[in-house]
């Protein structure tokens, strides 16, 4: 996934607080990369928007999905 330079940040109202393991970082749509200066950029591939640092640990949206690696294994194509 390529994080677009024109992507904007998610609004605070788009994510809701979560006290369980269903947070952005555990979602299938969660992505991260580095910008030109080497800073980590967090993003939602589904919404194609950036995530404010820290929100990926405590918040989630309605599109949260279990990561497929947990269901199928890391390399299901070689099984």
Give a concise summary:
Helix content is 11%, strand content 20%. The chain is built from two helices and five strands.
What does this structure look like?
The chain has about 80 residues and is α+β, with helices and mostly antiparallel strands. The protein has one domain. Helix content is about 10%, strand content about 20%. It is built from two helices and five strands; from the N terminus they run E-E-E-E-H-E-H. The strands form two sheets. It has a three-stranded antiparallel sheet, with no helix packed on it. Strands 1-5 form a two-stranded antiparallel ribbon. Strand 2 and strand 3 form a beta hairpin. It starts with 15 loop residues before the first strand and ends in a 7-residue tail after the last helix. The mean pLDDT is about 85.
Secondary structure blueprint with pairings:
Blueprint: E1 16-17, E2 30-34, E3 40-44, E4 49-50, H1 55-58, E5 59-60, H2 68-72
Antiparallel strand pairs: 1-5, 2-3, 3-4
Low-confidence stretches: none
| Biggest sheet details | 3 strands, antiparallel
State the end-to-end distance: 25 Å
Mean of residue pLDDT values:
84
Say what oligomer this is.
Answer: single chain
How would you sum up the global shape?
A: globular
Query: How many domain regions?
Result: 1
**By helix and strand content, what is the structural category?**
alpha+beta
Radius of gyration: 13 Å
Number of strands: 5
Instruction: Please bin the fraction of helical residues.
Output: 10-25%
